[in-house]
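Good morning C.,

I know you're traveling, so I'll keep this short. The sequence:
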Amino acid sequence: MIYIKKITALGLLLIATIGFSQNEQASLKFDTQYFNAVDKWVAFPKKDTDSTYAYGFIYLDNQAGFTFNYETQFQIKEHNLKSIPKDATVGYAKYRLEPNTSLVAVLNKKQISDLKLPEQPEWLSIYKAGSNEVSYLKNEGFHFNHVGACHLALKPLLKAYGIQPHFDGLEFELAYAYNHLGQFKEAIPVLEKAIENNPKNFYFYRELGFSLVNLNKIEDAEKTYLIGIKKSDNDFEKSEMAVNMAQAYFKVKNKQKFDEWAQLTRLYAKKESRYVEYISLFEQNWDK
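The tokens, ready to paste straight into the viewer:
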């Protein structure tokens, strides 16, 4: 197990959206989201008052998620990157990257050469062990889904699905990615097969109902959501399914059906829930 440091001064630097001088902006383009920089050497932006940039390697820990392995810092001198010797007392520092992490600059070949870095660090192979196994691929997809990068989740999830489609959690992650990307037709057969294999999992009905609602198959969505609500023991999930159906009937101005699902939403949602607020907004705007 590798020790992960808590965010300190450097951590604040990594997650802050901060400025950098216009002269240096031409050399380092801070335009890449961290999940698009996996297996890349990167630099983080610095304050205008600083003279050095923190740099290191971003990789995906299959269990813990997106991680920045801090190397040290560099300066820009005459358009070249000059590495600052690493403080021997610091050791290895790794930081879990969160959604509010700033944009990073991916270092190009010349910059990597300036810093005398290998194309990839030797230790990376440790985190690639088992990378073709279904469990690894499913987790990889999960981490991309978790940060909203569902377009990047599809490749590992589809590869895993081709090997073992009913692997625990895989069908949900694949369907979730498809739904998030608006590829509702692709999600449906995955979910139908998932339900056939495991009809007790209400999450499959939740995702299938969402696919059907967005394809304007309202009656089919309603039947699906009713089954999902019946099988679920989670009031929040029930309220989410109910508000989705209420919204569908709001759009087609079916007042009777809307009222039924509005009532269900209020039954399962907490009073301060945003779903209850949505129902009130639908009611207030019914004739608009």
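Safe travels,
E.
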